[in-house]
Task: inverse folding
């Protein structure tokens, strides 16, 4: 069961989840969303060396501490960069996890038929229009607004306060920076990067970077955000 949690009242049947990857500061937002959704954290997994950014009193383990009881719970990957999120999700599944948890913060406004892909996360205060499709492990950050009939492919990351007009298509592994505005109907290519505050009035090709108002292509043939390609 992949599970999408949106309830704002206590849920006695809500599962516990595992935080897989705690090396990014954004993990604290995921913790807060889980708390508002009345979902507890079993453990936090430190899958790479470095600081653990969790704010809860969760037990932190490394990969050697994964046992059958932990692997039985669904996992959440609290990483914003698409390439890192894909790598961590693949690692979690290879380690023996079988279920990725889909988390929608209870403060976000979503359509009655909203069904984001497995492992996706919608942060606090977002507004999602009707009739859209969202691929697996998408990440929509605080206060983003996504219009009707949007198509958001897998492992897309959308920054805080971004505004996507109706019928926008964002290709796999693309990242939309904080406060960017995408006009209705534009297509953002796979593994493309739209800079913070950009106003996108026309399509952005695959593996390209667009910045400014109006947005202009400043780089082509990039691997993806932070040099990582989502495949």
Result:
């Amino acid at each position: 069961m992949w599970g999408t949690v949106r309830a704002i009242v206590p849920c006695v049947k809500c599962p516990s989840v595992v935080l897989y990857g705690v090396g990014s500061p954004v993990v604290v937002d995921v913790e807060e969303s889980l708390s508002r959704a009345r979902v507890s954290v079993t453990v936090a997994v430190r899958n790479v060396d470095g600081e653990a950014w969790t704010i809860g009193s969760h037990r932190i383990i490394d990969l050697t501490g994964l046992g059958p009881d932990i692997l039985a719970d669904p996992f959440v990957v609290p990483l914003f960069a698409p390439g890192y999120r894909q790598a961590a999700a693949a690692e979690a599944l290879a380690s023996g996890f079988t279920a990725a948890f889909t988390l929608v913060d209870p403060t976000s406004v979503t359509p009655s038929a909203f069904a984001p892909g497995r492992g996706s996360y919608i942060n606090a205060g977002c507004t999602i229009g009707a009739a859209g499709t969202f691929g697996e492990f998408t990440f929509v950050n605080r206060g983003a607004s996504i219009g009707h009939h949007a198509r958001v492919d897998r492992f897309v990351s959308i920054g805080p306060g971004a505004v996507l007009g109706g019928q926008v298509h964002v290709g796999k592994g693309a990242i939309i920076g904080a406060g960017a505005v995408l006009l209705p109907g534009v297509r953002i290519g796979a593994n493309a990067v739209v800079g913070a505050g950009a106003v996108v009035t026309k399509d952005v090709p695959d593996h390209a970077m667009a910045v400014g108002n109006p947005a202009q292509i400043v780089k082509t043939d990039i691997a993806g955000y932070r040099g990582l390609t989502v495949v």
About this structure: Residues 151 and 169 are 5 Å apart (CA to CA). The first helix runs from residue 27 to 36.
